[in-house]
């Protein structure tokens, strides 16, 4: 789903170019929450990816998470290098050899720590490459995707490398995996086509 602006709204007895202009500049709810996920991503401690995730239920933020090492352990910034880079591990593979917990996982874990139910909520994920500052297709990896399904979330809204966002229904993921297999997914994190070869957004 591409980024789109809200349509102008008229107020009773008042209308004019200024009102229309203000309404046109107002962001949608999805853009609003994705913008908050973007701020969360600035706390990331990964050299490869800066990712932020928030979970919203009943129009209220109930949890946030960013990619980073487990609590009270040394992260990659403190070590001064990425372990997966040193081991020449490609994106999307061998996550057990990563120091970090993914943003989506941390958002789910933080909700559990607070005793908050995620059932029926939406997750918003923003991502960029910290080395190039380019936005990426912030699609969840297979591990996160399975956790999102089991957490009972409804929608997942992801930033894209074109500067927009894409909305996924979790029930569609479930339906796809009932018919095919996870490796048949169209939107896979870590695919070479997802963001590595995209031109920089102007």
The number of strands is 6
The radius of gyration is 18 Å
Helix content: 25-40%
Strand pairing plus helix content: what structural class? Answer: alpha+beta
Mean pLDDT: 83
Principal-axis shape equals globular
Order of helices and strands: HHEEHHHEEHEEHH
CA distance, first residue to last residue: 20 Å
Largest sheet, in brief, is: 6 strands, mixed
Written account of the structure:
The structure is a single chain. Helices cover 33% and strands 17% of the residues. With 202 residues, the protein is α+β, with helices and mostly antiparallel strands. The protein starts with 16 loop residues before the first helix and ends in a 7-residue tail after the last helix.
